[in-house]
Amino acid sequence: MSALAWGVGCAVAVVGVALAIARWRSVETDAARAEGASRPAALRDAELVYMEKLFRISTPVGLVAKLDRAYRMPSGLLVLVEFKTRSSNQPFLSDVIQLSAQRLAVMGQTGRLVASYGYVMVKAPTRRALPIAHRVRLMTDDQVVALVRRREDILADRILPRRPQSRKTCLSCAFRGQCDGLIP
Fold it and tell me: How many distinct structural domains can be found in the chain?
């Protein structure tokens, strides 16, 4: 191989590497831009610290929670965010329960302070628009523990469940067949 051919080959390789790095940085920048645009306005100055992370605790109750995102505010406080795709642009009680359980698990595993509020980001299933942020007040640790223990008692047949406030909830419940005729 001639020195000229070798030199051209090296130049092509260097240009190829440079283009690959530029593309990688562009994709990384696009992803960061999209993430920044998808967060609630109140979290613009916060740092994304957890994404799709699993947390586990065994006390005061056994709990495993996978959170969508957690942001660290400049004060150090963590704020949890849950993403939902649904046609109804509103947070549900189940979202609050989910975020509250996540809060208890994150605090229990890390010892870090997590806000008593969180955000449910709701995106319509058919639109390309950004999700809409809904700030929600989370349940206390004692309320989450009581809910977990009540669930355990229901599943162990120590107590009977109650009907939900809305009968619509029953339509999609996995335990519907067991409840029909048993609960007033």
Answer: 1
